[in-house]
Design a protein that fits this description.
With 158 residues, the protein is α/β, with parallel strands linked by helices. The protein is built from six helices and five strands; from the N terminus they run βββααβαβααα. Strands 3-2-1-4-5 form a five-stranded mixed sheet, sandwiched between helices. The chain is globular and about 35 Å long.
Length: 158
């Protein structure tokens, strides 16, 4: 499974095999524009040959920029063009903030503990770039925890 999350000018990718996180990266190139997101996503699909692509569900209420929404949609289209099972899940908030969420996810997947974002200082307006990686992992965990989705994936994958 390839889980993908997009934020302002960056995209986080997390690839899982048998529910184990085996590869992760953050791409600023993919976050620049949809065409770049397609190229980076296609490279990862070609490299890993996932059966499933999970991304954030794009809705009118989603508070991401217009460009970020276009990037998410382009990534989903790329999955469909590669005949992947494409699942868009809502971004569930189970923690007080994204930093606590990242810490909880790093306990489950200790291999990404070095990527834990530091809370931003009040005088900095930019969000730490590593949060998008943990957003991608959180989308995958949301899918793992959904028994109905797991059954559908298992049936679709044979």
């Amino acid at each position: 499974m390839l889980a993908v999350a997009a934020a302002n000018r960056r995209v986080g990718y997390a690839y899982f095999e048998n529910w184990d996180l085996v590869y992760w990266t953050i791409s600023t190139k993919a976050g620049e524009k949809p065409l770049n997101a397609v190229a980076v996503t296609q490279d990862l699909i070609t490299r890993f040959a996932p059966d499933v692509l999970v991304s954030q569900k794009v809705t009118p209420a989603l508070t991401k920029s217009k460009n970020t929404k276009k990037v998410i949609s382009a990534i989903a289209r790329t999955g469909k063009q590669n005949d992947l099972i494409c699942i868009a899940v809502p971004r569930l908030r189970k923690h007080k903030n994204k930093y606590e969420e990242a810490e909880a996810l790093a306990k489950i997947f200790p291999q990404v503990a070095d990527y834990l974002p530091q809370p931003r200082q009040l005088h900095h307006s930019k969000e730490p770039r590593n949060t998008v990686l943990f957003e991608a992992i959180a989308l995958a965990v949301t899918l793992f925890e959904d028994e109905d989705q797991n059954l559908l994936m298992a049936q679709a994958m044979g």
